[in-house]
Amino acid sequence: MTLPRIGGLAALTCAATYMIGFALLATLLAPFGYGTADIDAHALTAFIDAHPDVLIMWNTTIYVVNALALVVLVVALAGRLAHVPGWSAVTRAFGLIWATLVLGAGMIANVAVEHAAQLYPTDPQAAAELWHLLHIVELGLGGGNEIAGGVWITCVSAAARAARRLPRAVNALGLLAGLGGLLTIFPALGDAAGVVFGLGAIAWFLAVGAVLLTARPQPVTEVL
Fold first, then answer.
1. CB 3.0 to 4.6 Å from 109: which of 59, 85, 130, 162, for a disulfide?
2. Tally of domains within the chain
């Protein structure tokens, strides 16, 4: 299987991780205020004590699996932009930075769950405080903002539009999602912009996956 087609599967994997994340966030985790500024750390750590595997699975899906698939997609799209080597290098750099931040956020999120589960039986207050502290670090790396992702998707969409390497509708989706990600830098717009980014990114990943999976094989070009 060629790299573009593997990249297409990676794009669909990224979309799937987002959809799983949204589904759990809107159902099982909603009562704890997860994903908002009003999260109830004490109630959540009680849930972690009873069901630690749920949060581990969720973090692994939305962060670790997403990051690993993202690396493959970043390289595949950089190869598609090989006709404009400057932009190809820039998009690959931004994409790999984003994937690294996502992977780091996932590792910290899982460590937070593991340590909270260990502390909770003897000191629930300490467990809640520790989880909350590590959760802040997780959010700082990317769980609470989408700036790195917004920059990458915007750059890919702009470069692909200029080089005509992706359909116009796909580039428009990417620019919309990218703008949403960039706007998460403003606290007052954070929640709404995050939703725009998340839903837009799902649509963009699906569209990019379809393009890569149906593209004609191209000569292999090494991207330096």
1. 59
2. 1
Q: Is position 153 within any domain?
A: yes
What integer is the mean pLDDT of 7-22? 95
Q: How many helices (H) and strands (E) does the chain have?
A: 9, 0
**Amino acid at site 60:** T
The whole-angstrom separation of Cα 223 and Cα 133 is: 40
**Domain annotation covers residue 219:** no
Supply 142's token pair: 């990317």
Q: Residue 31 gets which letter from DSSP? A: G
Confidence (pTM)? 0.90
On whether residue 56 sits in a domain, the answer given is yes
Contact 153, 201 (CB under 8 A): yes
Residues 81-90 have pLDDT tens digits of 988 888 999 9
Domain that holds residue 176: 3-30+44-214
User: pLDDT at position 223, please?
Assistant: 41
What CA–CA distance (Å, rounded) separates 46 from 123?
11
Q: Where in the chain does DSSP place strands (E)?
A: none
Question: Token pair for residue 73?
Answer: 């997609």
Helices (H), 27-81: 41-50, 52-59, 66-80
- 221 lies in some domain: no
Q: Exposed/middle/buried for 38, CB within 10 Å: 0-12, 13-18, 19+?
A: exposed
